[in-house]
Specification:
By secondary structure, the protein is an alpha+beta fold. The chain has two helices and 15 strands.
């Protein structure tokens, strides 16, 4: 095989390796949580997400939301803060999920509370950096009080649960908008989890993403994300740690399904090295035209 053919093969191989660079995937913000690994089959295991996703679950398996015992329901990575209200599926807070890639914090909150109810409607999603009860930020979930759905608000004033204030902050009443973000309050999903309250097994997903740059002042800090409805009958919360260095992953799997984000891999490194070696061999041949090519790839 002559030198020109060998060099052509090396370049083609390097190009193929670079083209095969792996990509991490980002979540599609559509209210469908199958890209989190959550599927509706009518079993408790439905709630368990993809490996690496941070999550808390409070799926009821009795006819009340809370019976004074924190083991009631299918509870994972979550503890009831107080003996909250009683009620059926529309007053249930079911689960919360978090994940990160190099650019975004992704979240999904699952509840039995539909979007359009007028009495005790869905609350907003709250973030407490330092987990000290300060609740500095919130995501507007309904488009209320002059805010649009998906607005990230630096909050100056929160409302508490109207019936059970022990459930914590629920509605943004004042503050300044930091950014507008992708957000959806999804349509009804049925048959998630093991328990059906009579014939009602309706679930609704609030899903969105926030640019990590919006939280740059808190990089590397612990925080809590929390949600409850207007009455405070039930709540769900999850503790996490924000990534450092303006992005990256912090315990998450860096994505589920959606648009691609290139991630350099060993193929890219090897391909670059191979191209460099080929150029070096060509320079040697120019300097010494009598040299022969005996190396094999």
């Amino acid at each position: 095989m002559n030198t020109r053919i060998r060099n052509s093969i090396r370049i083609a191989l390097a190009t193929a390796l670079i083209g095969g660079t792996q990509c991490a995937m980002a979540y599609t913000i559509d209210g469908n949580i199958s890209d989190w690994g959550v599927y509706a089959t009518g079993h408790a295991s439905d709630w368990t997400p993809n490996s690496g996703v941070e999550y808390a679950i409070s799926d009821q398996n009795t006819n009340s939301l809370y019976n004074g015992n924190s083991t009631d329901g299918y509870v994972v990575n979550y503890s009831f803060p107080h003996a909250l209200g009683y009620g059926d599926q529309p007053y249930d807070a079911e689960a919360i999920y978090l994940d990160y890639d190099s650019t975004y914090l992704y979240y999904a909150v699952v509840t039995g509370r539909p979007e359009g109810v007028s009495q005790y409607p869905s609350g907003d999603i709250a973030f407490d950096f330092g987990s000290d009860g300060s609740w500095e930020y919130g995501i507007e979930t309904r488009g209320n009080n002059g805010y649009n759905k998906g607005d990230l608000v630096q909050v100056s004033n929160w409302a508490l649960g109207a019936i059970y204030p022990e459930a914590g902050v629920t509605e943004i009443q004042g503050g300044s908008v930091v950014s507008s973000n992708d957000f959806v309050y999804g349509s009804k999903i049925t048959d998630i989890g093991q328990y059906t309250y009579y014939s009602d097994d309706d679930h609704y997903v609030m899903e969105g993403r926030i640019a990590l740059s919006d939280f740059s002042l808190y990089a590397g800090q612990n925080f809590t994300v929390h949600w409850t409805m207007g009455c405070g009958n039930d709540e769900i919360h999850l503790a996490s740690t924000l990534p450092t260095g303006g992005g990256g992953c912090s315990g998450g799997n860096c994505g589920g399904g959606g648009s691609e984000v290139p991630v350099p891999g060993t193929g890219l490194l090897f391909g670059s090295a191979l191209i460099g070696w080929t150029l070096h061999r060509r320079r040697q041949q120019v300097a010494d035209p009598e040299s022969t090519e005996s190396d094999e790839v």
